[in-house]
């Protein structure tokens, strides 16, 4: 077996993609409805304000943008959450790789 075939970057990328696919499909197929906080964010997102009484504006903006791009598909809200998880995981991995590299 070629050791170069399993470089850390490749393994991490496969893990992130698998995680994103799994956690986008499972909630889409199993949950009958979106979580209440997502519905709340979608309701706020229609207004495109600079701030809301409870939360900063980035979550409603992202939710409304994804809703517009996906024609209001529920699956897109789960995909958006996994894109955020993937971006955060990648950022932590890059930071750890830079700080702890030999």
What does this structure look like?
The protein has 102 residues and is mainly alpha-helical. It has a domain of 38 residues. 71% of the residues lie in helices and 0% in strands. The chain is built from 4 helices and no strands. α2 crosses α3 and α3 packs across α4. The longest helix is centred in the last third of the chain and has 27 residues. The mean pLDDT is 92.
The whole-number mean of residue pLDDT values reads: 92
Overall 3D form: globular
How would you characterize the largest beta sheet?
Answer: none
First-residue to last-residue Cα separation: 25 Å
Quaternary form:
single chain
SSE blueprint and pairings:
Blueprint (H helix, E strand, L loop, with lengths): L7 H23 L5 H10 L12 H12 L4 H27 L2
Put the structure in a nutshell.
This protein has 102 residues and is mainly α.
Keywords:
single chain; 4 helices; mainly alpha; about 70% helix; about 100 residues
């Amino acid at each position: 077996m070629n050791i170069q075939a399993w470089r850390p970057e490749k393994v991490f990328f496969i893990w992130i993609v698998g995680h994103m696919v799994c956690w986008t499909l499972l909630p889409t197929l199993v949950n009958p409805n979106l979580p209440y906080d997502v519905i709340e964010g979608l309701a706020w997102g229609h207004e495109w304000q600079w701030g809301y009484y409870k939360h900063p504006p980035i979550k409603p903006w992202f939710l409304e943008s994804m809703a517009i791009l996906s024609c209001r598909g529920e699956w897109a809200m789960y995909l958006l959450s996994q894109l955020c998880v993937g971006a955060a995981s990648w950022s932590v991995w890059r930071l750890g790789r830079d700080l702890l590299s030999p």
